[in-house]
Amino acid sequence: MTYSTKVIDHFEHPRNIGSLPKDDPNVGTGLVGAPECGDVMKLQIRINPDTGIIDDAKFKTFGCGSAIASSSLVTEWLKGRTVDQALAITNSDIVDELQLPPVKIHCSVLAEDAIRAAIADYQRKRENKGGTGAGTHAQPFA
Amino acid sequence: MKLPIYMDYHATTPVDPRVLEAMLPYFTQEFGNPASRNHAFGWAAEKAVELARQQVADLIGAGAKEIIFTSCATEANNLALKGVAAMYGEKGNHVITCVTEHKAVLDPCRQLEKQGVRVTYLPVRKDGRIDLDELRAAITDRTILVSIMTANNEIGVLQPVAEIGAIAREKGVLFHTDAVQAAGKIPFDVNQVTADLVSISGHKIYGPKGIGALFTRRRNPRVLLAEQISGGGHERGMRSGTLNVPGIVGLGAAAAICKAEMAAEGERLRRLRDRLNDGLHRNLDGIYVNGSMEHRLPHNLNISVAYVEGESLLMGINDVAVSSGSACTSASLEPSFVLKALGAGDDMAHSSIRFGLGRWTTEEEVDYVVDKLTAVVRRLREMSPLYELVKEGVDLSKHQWARH
Fold it and tell me: A89 — contact with chain B (CB < 8 Å)?
């Protein structure tokens, strides 16, 4: 697979690897994909309760180079955005930025799914105000 | 040590300089056509071809007249399968093969099925070998051919070909084996395995690309093949086309070198392969060998690295040429069907690496690969959500994944 220099840069120097405390009410966690499909992304965002702005984003990804690059890229993009602005990110933005080849478009779709899953998780926690987030997850997550 | 390191000898091998030297005159001075029976140019070419035929035959314990040269092993496999199916159609219409065969066997089988031939694809056990009782049970009075490879190209697992050959012989069924990965690497004798048809490739044994051979037994039984390429009636009428003299000379020279050096080379590579395997197991947890370690080519290692995806592994060790069963490294976007057939699960196929060691692999290279792979696996596991979940005590197989 011949990748763009941007993919290789994100693969070799991934941004924002790590985890945020998933029980924090201000943290939303998205876990998408499946091991037998060859890619799993965990994306976490933390929203500042006063400003409504994403002030931190972390990821961990099991997957090919473009899956790692796509998730690394979106963590960079998410910081400083509101939830609505984050939801405006689409997979084609990722494809364009990373110049992903057609066979790798599913990696960008997965990254978009991860953003939506993380935001959905955050919003669920807000609705269940006072809850810790445990047991409210779409994808049960030990 | 020179980078990048080549550790993909199952894919292809470089031409041995001694082989190249043997070939060179046949491009220029000795350019004759062996079919030219009436002049010195033709005689010289014919003499070279017949020497090569003997060298190839000697490698596998055959007679020179039993060697048919083809353009590659894919062609040899096609000729064996289609040639037998067409020639023995009156005797029966059933072929037995196995799910982990190379595509050059599986695809011709699919084509035969379209022509009304019934094909049984035997499963393999977890160790990658077929069950001999299942083979016995699959043979009917309509069976004409059993085609089972000697060594698998991905996992290097050796099938019990001597036992398969004996069963086929007992039942009066022809036995073809794709020995592309095994011939020249481990002792192989057509009479010891009672094989009737054997495919060989030049570029897997330090010979050139564009040349292969099919051993076709001439006695007890005399195997007949319907030609698949018609023309001037070369190769006893079984494969027409002007002989690729430099390629044939190269295949012969490569076979002779393999025969002479096989014992020492096999032992050296086994030691290096074990060093690679031991080093990786010492440094890393969650490393699984795919297929039998006992019944395996000495120069093959195929491992799955849990919680890390294969293409990203390969990207991480981009100065080492290896291959992966990961979907992301294949054109079909499907994970390796060979690894899936072992029942290891798609996730392990996605996480696999195949190492093929060869004539120029050094201990220094092996040590470099161990160190490099260790570092890359550690780095990728640090960013693997699967590794994190497992450390938290989650059973990945019981987790409800959001499949896409």
Answer: no
pLDDT, average across residues A93-109: 94
| Domain extent at residue B169 | 17-258
pLDDT per residue as tens digits for the range B368-400: 999 999 999 999 999 999 999 999 998 888 888
Give every CB contact of residue B293 below 8 A, 6+ residues apart in sequence. Answer: none
Task: Name every residue whose Cβ is closer than 8 Å to that of residue B141 and which is 6 or more positions away in sequence.
Answer: B92
Verify whether residue A107 is a known catalytic residue: yes
Count of domains forming chain B: 2
Exposed, middle or buried, B204 (CB in 10 Å: 0-12/13-18/19+)? buried
B172 vs B398, which has greater pLDDT?
B172
- On whether both B297 and B221 belong to a single domain, the answer is no
CATH of domain A5-126: 3.90.1010.10
Q: What is the mean pLDDT of chain B?
A: 96
Which chain A residue has the Cα nearest residue B315?
Answer: A65
Enumerate residues 6+ apart whose C-beta is below 8 A from B24: B246
Kind of pairing, strands B118-122 and B94-98?
A: parallel
Contacts of A68 in chain B (CB under 8 A): 312, 383
Q: What is the sign, positive or negative, of the torsion defined by CA atoms of B383, B385, B388, B390?
A: negative
Active site residue A64: no
- d(CA A96, CA B117) in angstroms, rounded, equals 49
pTM for the model stands at: 0.92
Please tell me the predicted confidence (pLDDT) of residue A84: 95
